[in-house]
């Protein structure tokens, strides 16, 4: 049944995905079952007569495409595309927007428009690398989605699309579309500090330079790493309403003012880390899918707000609920053009525990939340991966189920290094919640040169662990891991008195560490390594390859920095 | 101030310890302050006249000894000892037991007897590798202590002792001593299953063969690893009383019957692991101090008993207590000849949490606790190192402080690989509570030979993590870690339906895993490796050396087993 391929087209490969993948992506508006069923049927019935219509005659050789898909590469697809290019005609029929809109399902065909062209992408749905999210554009324009997901702005994507052209949109409807599309969903994103290193502009993803990161125990909000999944929503604090669902008290709705006044204000110093922090080190081993974060997708701030626990109790939470529910879901107010919001969930026991310290935060570092960090209200889930700390919080749902969002179900999970996109089963791994022990060297930078005359070297960095586990030691090596010294660690701003030891299991904030060591005599290069130990005595793994995973998350191997020693010229 | 040494005598080195170490060892009977003060004074005033007496003239050259001590080696000490040997006379004065007993402090001198000889070991106290525990024998006989701590039964120990001889015990008192000493404190220890591999007989420490370990999800009690620190106490269930101290209700005393009837019986399946499990792998890197455990100092059982939380609530525990107290201490009924009991403590929040599942267990695998496992009552602290699961429980103390016991303060802690016995500061590391993620291969055994004709190989093992973190994946490699496959894991007896997923943070039981893989064509040897991942996505470190520590605890690097493939003779 499987057809092997001879050559591989990497562009097409990137866009391919198994039919199976479809089962994992669902949205509220378009239940996935029909898509899957259709996919299964289409893999078996390859002739056109069963669904013949004008435009189907123009579709590319999708039998070839499916063969390529099954084989896990796009080589056959690419071949098929080129074969059919010659057959295309310049004269296309004209369609109205209404006609296009009537094709918005796999049953009726999936049509989209792009710059005035009308495309029947029914056959492409199963191959879409983003899964059936593509169905959100069914019957409408692609532009708003491509503006959200900039990965589409590549030549080979346009080439693929052109193969599916079936007509042109009439002039009047095209004009209407253009008027609407001049709105860039990211146009109202806030200004950002220019020192940030941008990994992606839309949505905005950026990290501070490492040297700045370890300058302060509390990361100034401007330098705090930013990881948005969608455009920053404009929220009016006067009309903002937080909804709490799924509890015996019925729907609880809270204004910002009520959230601030009805519940005690609670302050927690907590480090947030992106699951993809240090992904670039995994990319160096073998390419992964995701933003190429350096070591600074982690920052530390003080957060103030109402405790989620208190709000849930006010909404009727009690032991009865614990028996039927297991999760607390969060929905952001950030949404794509279809209204799909960012979403995530955390285990109920974390949410309601007195010691969980989960906040509905409205302040960051003593001021209102900045727009990029969730104004006016975000969830702060100390000890848990950044992705569950939902920003611009709109809704809280206590449920028996995890969030059904893409980011909970089909992203932010860890897999074995032997698992690839052909074999991955997202259901087989738990959604990342607590993160493993982590540390990195912020100074010196990799490749730095140190003068022999300076006689000693100061190495600095951060260390943190998930689940409230306190970092109890950081070991530093200058010889690639053969010998180790213990770094000085601190849990406050330099020069300030250290905060007391946090209660067991509630060490939410990172530690900064530093060690000054004499330059080893005769050494021409230092292979600096750091590794942290937390109070469960978990340690970082030695190397990256054995923890490599296809999404490049959970990158917490020893951090390594190489430094050259320049001999003093007078001595040479 | 520090004197360097030229050569090292390894026997003496082993027995040496910094004066500083003394500050960390204290017992209720003999507060440590005088010992430390004395030590400090003696390092400065080196002449004998200030405390002159008959026997002091016989003491060995302790100025040399102290110099050696300061330099961290025994070389100078050894030199001093030999120099003074010649000066000793055969004719010793005769002392009564009463005279010996009057020397039981550093102020009055510390005398001990051994086989009829009288020894003034005042100067040796600071050098005793077991710390000031040696003071427990002050004024009495060494034999009962040496019977407890078999490490003393070595020739060089007797040689060192002989240097401190100051007299002989009179015949009558010697006779009395001998009568008392015929009682072996271990004589009432229970029978054990002969298949156990004994690491130490007195106290009894043994583990099952690995192949037996992975045969059953619930380890039969007879095969469950045994780790005793002292003789097994004989406890009469009819007169057994458990004391609970430190709570507003005052002292609560519970008989076994009351414990069983006043509180609901709660059953937990929990894995216990010794901190020293897999220590032999650390020993292979560099010698550590401790029993040479293989991979089977870990087992899984069902435990039933009263919840500690319920008992503490009955004794008056409430939120007020949480504000002043931080620890729950446990004292065993197992004791040494001085009455010092085994002791340990756990954080209060683990003890009182509804989700902590800490038990005062009176049943193991559905029957009364066996004598070796704490009959009639032991603590079971799921997710926490075996050493805190105090057996033969006598007393529970809610306190602001950790247990002051040797095992809590000066043992069962982790250190950097660069830390040795000269530099270790036990106060710098937290007492081990939650253990890190762990896994090991139980079959095949290292060095096994597999026939090529068998075509495939089944690899089996266990995996577990501390703190209730569930093992979510076990990766197995047959090529030393280059490529990985995912093992099948199970959480029940083979053939039985798997238990449901435990609630988040309450995965107390291990998982057994198994993978059957074809023998790689052409391979002559398989380098089998396993590593586990828990739901905080912590992973085991790759190698042993970077996590090596002087006590050989927390040995959780990838487990490696090498297997040879024998080619089928017909094919050769």
Automatic annotation (TrEMBL), chains A, B:
The keyword Oxidoreductase applies. Its EC number is 1.8.3.1. One of its GO terms (biological process) is nervous system development. Keywords: Heme, Iron, Metal-binding, Mitochondrion, Molybdenum, Oxidoreductase. Its cofactor is heme b; Mo-molybdopterin. GO terms for molecular function: heme binding; molybdenum ion binding; molybdopterin cofactor binding; sulfite oxidase activity. InterPro entries: Cyt_B5-like_heme/steroid-bd, Cyt_B5-like_heme/steroid_sf, Cyt_B5_heme-BS, Ig_E-set, MoCF_OxRdtse_dimer, Mopterin_OxRdtase_euk, OxRdtase_Mopterin-bd_dom, OxRdtase_Mopterin-bd_sf. Gene3D superfamilies: 2.60.40.650, Cytochrome b5-like heme/steroid binding domain, Oxidoreductase, molybdopterin-binding domain. PANTHER family: SULFITE OXIDASE, MITOCHONDRIAL (PTHR19372:SF7), SULFITE REDUCTASE (PTHR19372). This is Sulfite oxidase.
């Amino acid at each position: 049944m499987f057809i092997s391929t001879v050559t591989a087209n990497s562009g097409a490969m990137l866009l391919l995905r198994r039919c199976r993948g479809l089962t994992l992506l669902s949205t509220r508006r378009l239940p996935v079952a029909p898509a899957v069923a259709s996919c299964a049927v289409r893999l078996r019935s390859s002739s056109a007569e069963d669904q013949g219509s004008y435009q189907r005659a123009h579709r590319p050789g999708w039998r070839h495409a499916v063969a390529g898909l099954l084989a896990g590469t796009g080589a056959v697809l690419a071949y098929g595309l080129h074969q059919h290019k010659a057959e295309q005609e310049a004269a296309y029929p004209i369609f109205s927007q209404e006609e296009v809109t009537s094709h918005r399902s796999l049953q009726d065909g999936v049509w989209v428009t792009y710059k005035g062209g009308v495309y029947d992408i029914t056959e492409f749905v199963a191959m879409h690398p983003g899964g059936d999210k593509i169905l959100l554009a069914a019957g409408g324009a692609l532009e708003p989605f491509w503006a959200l997901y900039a990965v589409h702005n590549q030549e080979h994507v346009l080439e693929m699309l052109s193969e599916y052209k079936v007509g042109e949109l009439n002039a009047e409807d095209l004009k209407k579309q253009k008027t609407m599309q001049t709105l860039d969903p990211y146009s109202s994103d806030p200004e950002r500090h220019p020192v940030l290193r941008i990994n992606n502009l839309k949505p905005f993803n950026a990290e501070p330079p490492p040297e700045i990161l370890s300058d302060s125990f509390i990361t100034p909000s401007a330098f705090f790493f930013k990881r948005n999944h969608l455009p920053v929503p404009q929220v009016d604090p006067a009309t903002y309403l937080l909804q709490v669902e799924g509890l015996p008290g019925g729907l609880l709705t809270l204004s910002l003012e009520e959230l601030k006044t009805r519940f005690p204000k609670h302050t927690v110093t907590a480090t947030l880390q992106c699951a993809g922090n240090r992904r670039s080190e995994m990319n160096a081993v073998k390419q992964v899918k995701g933003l190429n974060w350096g070591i600074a997708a982690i920052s530390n701030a003080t957060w103030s707000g109402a405790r989620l626990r208190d709000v849930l109790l006010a909404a009727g939470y009690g032991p009865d609920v614990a028996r039927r529910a297991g999760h607390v879901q969060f929905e952001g107010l950030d949404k794509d053009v279809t209204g799909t919001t960012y979403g995530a969930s955390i285990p109920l026991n974390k949410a309601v525990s007195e010691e969980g310290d989960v906040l509905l935060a409205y302040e960051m570092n003593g001021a209102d939340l900045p727009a990029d960090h969730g104004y006016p209200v975000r969830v702060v889930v100390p000890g848990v991966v950044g992705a569950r700390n939902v920003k611009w919080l709109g809704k809280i749902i206590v449920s028996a189920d995890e969030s059904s969002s893409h980011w909970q179900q089909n992203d932010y999970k860890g897999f074995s290094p032997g698992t690839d996109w052909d074999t991955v089963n997202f259901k087989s791994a738990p959604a990342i919640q607590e993160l493993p022990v982590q540390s990195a060297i912020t100074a010196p930078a990799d490749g730095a040169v140190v003068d022999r005359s300076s006689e000693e070297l100061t190495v600095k960095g951060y260390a943190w662990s998930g689940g409230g586990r306190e970092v109890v030691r950081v070991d530093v090596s200058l010889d690639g891991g053969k010998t180790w010294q213990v770094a000085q660690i601190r849990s406050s701003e330099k020069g300030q008195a250290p905060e007391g030891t946090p209660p067991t299991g509630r060490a939410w904030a990172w530690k900064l560490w530093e060690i000054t060591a004499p330059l080893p005599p005769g050494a021409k290069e230092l292979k600096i390594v750091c590794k942290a130990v937390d109070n469960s005595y978990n340690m970082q793994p030695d190397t990256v390859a054995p923890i490599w995973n296809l999404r490049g998350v959970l990158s917490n191997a020893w951090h390594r920095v190489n430094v050259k020693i320049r001999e003093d010229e007078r001595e040479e």
